Structure formats: structure tokens, C-alpha cells
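step 4 of 6: structure.
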Amino acid sequence: MSEQAAIYLSVVIPVYNEELNLPALFGRLYPVLDGVGRSYEVIFTNDGSADRSFELLRARQAARPDVTRVIDFNANYGQHMAIMAAFERVRGEVIVTLDADLQNPPEEIPKLLAAIDAGHDYVGGFRLARRDSLFRTQASRLINWVREHTTSIRMTDQGCMLRAYRRPVIEAIVRSGAINTFIPALAYSFASNPGEVGVVHAERNAGVSNYSFYQLIRLNFDLITGFSLAPLQYFTMFALACSAGSFLLVVVLALRRLVLGPEEGGLFTLFGILFFLLSVAMVGIGLIGEYVGRTYQVVRARQRYHVRETLG
Ligand code: UDP
Ligand code: MG
């Protein structure tokens, strides 16, 4: 993607089992983009959908071949890899990402473009009133707080995928070859003049979220461990404090033995302390494993996804 941008706008949309939402998305997205009055393309990545999503995309591509391209993965590689594959192929000067389930209203795209025109090379949307479950909203607040305090990434709402980028930011993302990544955060780290605009958020048009509880945890691990070593460092600090405490405890117990004689009870207190320290060690091993696993994936340098077919 080193060649010059040929058109103004590329809209990138990951699609995973969205057959119920695609018709409505097409119906709202294309009029908005036609209304912008500049050249554009829409790139859909079919992320291994098991439903009729790909057939719908194929039909759409046939209906609007001038402005529609489709990338078809052979399997499900996740939302961020789907976006990455499109980033490697975009032709636009400005790139906008969007969810396929209409939680990000296409009507908000011109707002992002206005902020880009005002000079930002990265414009993050933040959801004005979020329409998700209470659990998701609260979990996001927590992870937002953790991110603020462990990484240098400053954004109001990392989870909102309605965002716009200038081409150089996307080129930097593609060059980075990141594997388990969190695209909004990665883009932020390459931007020189990031901006934010508030965008409307809607409830999912149809179907349920594709993210299970487990996947959400994985994704947020990607966010924190991908952009900071703070978990390792905090853990070391905590482990140091624990060792100092245990050392003191040993001294106290030894003195007690000498002065008061052998103790009768207290065995279970010691077990308690031992189990606590053991669990601390186990968490530490797991944490190191997170980083080692990521290092392994980078070192292995296997292709990140496999494209079965591209249309347009
Ligand atoms: N998505 C994807 N691959 C996945 C999961 C999701 O391409 O493995 C797409 C999905 O089709 C949608 C977007 O990513 O366009 C956001 O997914 P979803 O709405 O399930 O997530 P939520 O809004 O609950 O965070
Ligand atoms: Mg959604």
C-alpha cells in the first residue's frame, strides 16, 4: 500500500455473522457516502461468517462494483485482524472504520471527516450515550481506568470503532505487523495530532454481540499488555513487598521461638500465608506467560490471516 492514495475515502467494515444487519447497513451507508460528494470505496472483510453474510456482500459488490470491495477470510480471525486486512488494501487518503451492526450510525461519518479536514490525522469517536448492557459499560469503565494508568494512550472511549485516520497513520499500522492488537490504541500511538468527536451510539440492530466474556478478557489483555509493561513492573513491586513482609515474619517467628519457646498453634496461619504467597507466584507466572506467548507469536512470524478470495 505504498502507492499514492487514488481516492479520498475508504470505509472499512469487519463482518462476522451479520446477515440480519447487512441490508439495513447497505441501505443507510451508501446514501451517506454518496452525499459526501467525494470519491470513496467500502471494503468489507468477511471474517469467516457461518451465515449468508458473504453471499450478501457478493451481491452488494455486484450491485455497486465501482465503490465496493470484499475480502473473504477462510476462517474467523477476529475483528481487529479483519480490519487489518482491509488496511493493507485501502486506496483512500482518509480511512474510516465502522461496525457492521449499525451500533455506529453511518450518518456520523461526515462529523469525523470534518474533524479530519480541520487538521487531525486521527479522530476517535466516543459514544455519547452508550447503548450496551450494564455489565459491558461498567467493565469498559474499569478497563478505561486501567489503560489510563498503565499506558500513555489517552482517549475517552477506546471501545468505539467509529474512527477516522489519515493514510500515514494506517501505513504505520500496516508496517508495524502487529499481531494481537487493539487497533484504536495502535493508531493512537502513531498519530501526531489526535482528536475526538462525540458520536451517537445505537443498540445492536439485530442479533447479539459476537464477543463472549472470554474474548472480551483476551481483547483487553491485548490492549494492556500490547502497550505497556506496567503489569510486569507492578507485579515485581508487589512481589518485592511480599518478600520483605515474609522476611520480617521469619525474623519475628525466630525471635518468638527463642524468647517464648515453640508455639503450639499458629500452624494454619502459616498455611494461610504460604497459600497466599503461592497464589502470588502463580499470578506472576501467568503474567509472564502472557508476554512470552506474544513474543512467541511475533518470533514465529506466521501469516496472521488467510484470504480466500477478494472481490473488486
Ligand atoms: N466482528 C468480526 N469478527 C469477530 C467478531 C466481530 O469481524 O470475530 C465484527 C462484527 O461483525 C461487527 C464488529 O466486529 O461488525 C463488532 O462486533 P460486535 O458488535 O459483536 O461487538 P460489540 O459491539 O458487542 O463490541
Ligand atoms: Mg456491536
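step 5 of 6: annotate
 - The pocket of magnesium ion (ligand 2) is lined by residues 99, 101, 103, 204, 209 (CB under 6 Å).
 - Strands lie at 7-15, 40-46, 68-73, 92-97, 122-127, 163-166, 194-199, 307-311.
step 6 of 6: archive
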